[in-house]
Amino acid sequence: MKLLWALVRRDLMLATRQGGGAGTAIGFFVTVIVLLPLGLGPDQSLLQRIAPGALWIALLLSVLLSAERIFQSDYEDGSLDAMALGVVPLELVVLAKAAAHWLITALPLAVAAPFFGFLINLDPLAILPLSLAMIIGSIALSLLAALGAAITVALRRGGLLVSLLILPFYVPCLIFGVAASSLSDLVTPSLLMLTALALASLVLIPVAAAAALRAYLK
Amino acid sequence: MVFTDVNFTLASGQLLELRGPNGAGKSSLLRLIAGLGDPASGVLSLTGGNAQLAIGQQTHYAAHQEAIKAPLTVIENLKFWGDFLGGGDVAAAIAAFDLDGLADYPAALLSAGQKRRLSLSRLALVPRLLWLLDEPTLGLDAASLDRLMKLLRGHLSGGGLALLATHNALSLSADVTLMLGPQS
């Protein structure tokens, strides 16, 4: 556990030193949300109806934007080789990298999203369900991003491929996420489905991503 | 096929020198031993180590890629690897390659030779039975070369094993020399 924390802390430190990561994602997110009402016109009730969906789509795309880089620099500078020779199994390395990505990119977005929601007339009653669904859903999003990054780690310009590969997996997150963000209840069946997706990703993706990384290292 | 019929035995405390022209498969062989390659056939075995761990997990693999993060300082880089590899002796690593004066500089500012020293200082960071060194002398000045040889001698006299691929003459005589021929 301590060993994994060392990796998470290093990634957080790299992110704060380099900027890039979180800043780019939040900047992109804000851009989409600001442009949306300009494109759709000032129809308040229309904006309110589409607000949760628009925020979710912006979240997905922002997470996708930084997905490609999760393993890239570690692969290129040989860190991944050295990690593969560590006492920590590669599966847990994937988990730690995904956790770092979540903390740097997905979680700040999920927390900030409802506030940007005011820009598109998000119903105040929807703030709590939306936050909850986004925080839970973003776990799955970061893990899926890590899977896409692992599968394309040695490919130059793998960004497009990452998007194509993981977009189908993002669809259920989006559907259940938006459904869970409707104002009715805090705990809806959709939220439970979203939680199930997050938990399944937590278990399955480290195994799959580690297998992909091993194949590249050999 | 990069190479066939490679066979060697290395006893505790011995150094194997790996020689051969570019492309002969020196790096491939070292990666293979570390577990970062897929042999078409053959057996690698390590006796006397920790049976619970794979060979790679008892190995230091120093290659051309230095596994250094440019935005982090020298000491942060070492601390991370020390923690990640299960508790390292950062002070020993700093001392081994005289990185004292550089400790608080971001690795981005280091020269190629200094980066190589930082990368090699991982050898002193965490003790491991088998060292796989892929042209470690590249870019090192005379003083650093002496430090590397001193470190290597200490490792061997402590019963460690080392495989070293190089094109240069070493001040340390190898117990075994393995020539990898050009691809035929």
Written overview of the protein:
The complex is a heterodimer of chains A (218) and B (184). Chain A has one domain. Chain A is 80% helix and 0% strand. Chain A has nine helices and no strands. The model of chain A has no long low-confidence stretch (mean pLDDT 90). Chain B is an alpha/beta fold and 184 residues long. Chain B has a single domain (15-179), classed as Rossmann fold (3-Layer(aba) Sandwich), CATH 3.40.50.300. Chain B is built from six helices and five strands. In chain B, strand 3 (130-134), helix 6 and strand 4 (161-165) form a beta-alpha-beta unit. The mean pLDDT of chain B is 88.
Largest sheet of chain A: none
Helical content of chain A stands at over 70%
Low-confidence stretches of chain B: none
**What's the tally of helices of chain B?**
6
Judged by helices, strands and strand pairing, the structural class of chain A is mainly alpha
The ordered string of helix (H) and strand (E) elements of chain B is EHEHHHHEHEE
Q: How does the overall form of chain A come out from the CA principal axes? A: elongated
Low-confidence stretches of chain A: none
- Strand share of the residues of chain B? 5-15%
Please name the fourth-level CATH homologous superfamily of chain B: P-loop containing nucleotide triphosphate hydrolases
Mean pLDDT of chain B: 88
Helix vs. strand class of chain B? alpha/beta
β-strand percent of chain A reads: under 5%
Number of domains of chain A: 1
Q: Report how far the terminal alpha carbons of chain A are from each other.
A: 27 Å
Helix content of chain B: 25-40%
- Assign an overall shape of chain B: globular
Task: Let me know the number of strands of chain B.
Answer: 5
Q: How many distinct domains of chain B? A: 1
Oligomeric nature of the chains: heterodimer
